[in-house]
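Input (structure):
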């Protein structure tokens, strides 16, 4: 007769084996389509400097490709990891817990992937266009030529995209949590009590972080305050709906 701990450890071992086999299969597929993967991860820079990159040592291109491959494997196998976690933990949960875990993971993960693709295909190209304008100088005695290192570009691109998408992911995860728990009632009460402090912190952070340009700061404050008021209106609608 096997004890429950042994059964749990055996199931974990089997599920980990399936998961790592899936990661290895993805790695083999990525190796066969390495040119398409490199093109996909350098797409946002392709219209600047004619998509040319430089390397400073012989192993830089290989290290960059390995870094890209591990990121692709992590993104591609995230749904599979969620499936195994749900199947392993769901046997000891109530139906309400399974429903809560399923909804918060699906909606928050969807917001993460949408924000990641939006950042990579919309935000970063405009950021590169802005940075590329600094290669133009009015001092004609100097000629500035942009030469992008593929390793530096890849690291900076993926880290920036993940930072922005993770920030949006944490925000939406918290919102979805409040929505699933009590339909945003407590969130509305908390935000209504601390609305003045929130606006003060927005103005303070804007004056510290942004350049000392009046137009830029006023425009940024206006956009953030408008979004916060729209968010407050949404919480008001949920609060009124639950108290009718």
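Output (sequence):
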């Amino acid at each position: 007769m096997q004890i429950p701990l042994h059964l749990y450890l055996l199931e974990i071992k089997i599920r980990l084996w399936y998961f790592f086999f899936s990661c290895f299969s993805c790695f083999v597929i990525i190796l066969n389509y390495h040119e398409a993967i490199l093109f996909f991860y350098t797409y946002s820079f392709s219209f600047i400097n004619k998509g040319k990159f430089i390397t400073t040592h012989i192993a830089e291109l290989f290290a960059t490709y390995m870094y890209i491959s591990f990121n692709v494997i992590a993104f591609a196998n995230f749904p599979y990891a969620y499936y195994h976690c749900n199947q392993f933990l769901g046997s000891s949960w109530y139906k309400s817990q399974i429903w809560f875990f399923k909804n918060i993971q699906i909606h928050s993960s969807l917001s993460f992937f949408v924000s990641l693709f939006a950042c990579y295909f919309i935000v970063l190209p405009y950021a590169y266009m802005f940075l590329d304008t600094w290669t133009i100088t009015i001092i004609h005695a100097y000629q500035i030529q942009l030469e992008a290192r593929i390793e530096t570009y890849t690291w900076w691109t993926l880290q920036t995209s993940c930072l922005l998408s993770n920030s949006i992911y944490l925000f939406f995860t918290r919102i979805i949590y409040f929505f699933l728990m009590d339909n945003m009632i407590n969130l509305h009460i908390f935000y209504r009590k601390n609305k003045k402090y929130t606006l003060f912190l927005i103005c303070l952070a804007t004056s510290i972080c942004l350049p000392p340009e009046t137009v830029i700061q006023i425009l940024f404050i206006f956009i953030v305050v408008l979004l916060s008021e729209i968010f407050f209106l949404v919480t008001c609608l949920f609060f009124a709906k639950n108290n009718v």
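Notes: Strands lie at 53-54, 148-149. The chain has a mean pLDDT of 77.
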